[in-house]
Amino acid sequence: MKSLLFLVLISVCWAEPHPDNSSLENERIIHIQENGPRLLVVAEQAKIFSHRGGNVTLPCKFYHEHTSTAGSGTHKIRVKWTKLTSDYLKEVDVFVAMGHHRKSYGNYQGRVFLRESSENDASLIITNIILEDYGRYKCEVIEGLEDDTAVVALNLEGVVFPYSPRLGRYNLNFHEAQRACLDQDSVIASFDQLYDAWRSGLDWCNAGWLSDGSVQYPITKPREPCGGKNTVPGVRNYGFWDKDKSRYDVFCFTSNFNGRFYYLIHPTKLTYDEAVQACLKDGAQIAKVGQIFAAWKLLGYDRCDAGWLAAGSVRYPISRPRKRCSPNEAAVRFVGFPDKKHKLYGVYCFRAYN
């Protein structure tokens, strides 16, 4: 068997004497021959930052390892962009190009195209970014039998916030949690987004769904009801639970918006239905939870007046802590879900720009 293996090695490799060494171990260099230059795909930046409504370029270029040319000319270059999911066995098609043929998919249609600043440029431009665009993208270049890939992460400037419905804490399965975030002008947050929020000071004791199906919560001030006062700060992980049967809160993520968020100046306090009509009369709509968090975090909106929001909750945003207005911390203060027909409050409105 050893003799056969030796003969096989002799048949695929050749050796030459090394001029500088006389020892047996160093006097031969093994050469493995390859057929032609190797295709390389490179992302100049591994992480790109943008915001909702903006445009962004995900960088990707391709080369041959031993040449300065983009392609060999023998085969057409095929460029394919996909979005990676939390399930690494699945990918979402984004864009494919080969020769003069171009095709985009799903909600990327009409919003994506190649930059093509040079013959080896496969960078993808995404226009009018939406919240769902956040994530990791794979650039794959194929030429004949050769192919290579690079991965680029698209991060969005925004804010993570905990959400529970009128029914109270731990009342959402995973699918209901997704819909709840969408109803509040947001999407269900990823672990990376929650981790960044925790690093920025988010502390919340109720466990909530994340986009990968896990249930977690961020603690900056360890205490007995939240994992124990002797534990270290961190993002606590409950693990993965049944998406249909298990019920928790949810962490949502939202970014900036194309519109105006404001507290409506009105001569009287309002019931919930009166608040909805007052915003409509002012050419706007009653604001959503995601919009008050975005205005507070990204625009520094500060108002000590409690006001109705679309889901029936009452909140107010404080960016400058002061006496009688969240004296200890900047936060969106939660008053609760008052009786819609009898309780009177102000209202926060949102007017979208055309």
From TrEMBL:
Coiled coil regions, renumbered to chain: none
Primary location recorded for the protein, binned into one broad class: secreted
Keywords: Disulfide bond, Extracellular matrix, Glycoprotein, Hyaluronic acid, Immunoglobulin domain, Repeat, Secreted, Signal
Segments forming domain Ig-like: 37-155
Gene3D superfamilies membership: Immunoglobulins (2.60.40.10), Mannose-Binding Protein A, subunit A (3.10.100.10)
Family: Belongs to the HAPLN family.
Protein name: Hyaluronan and proteoglycan link protein 1
Taxonomic source organism: Fulmarus glacialis
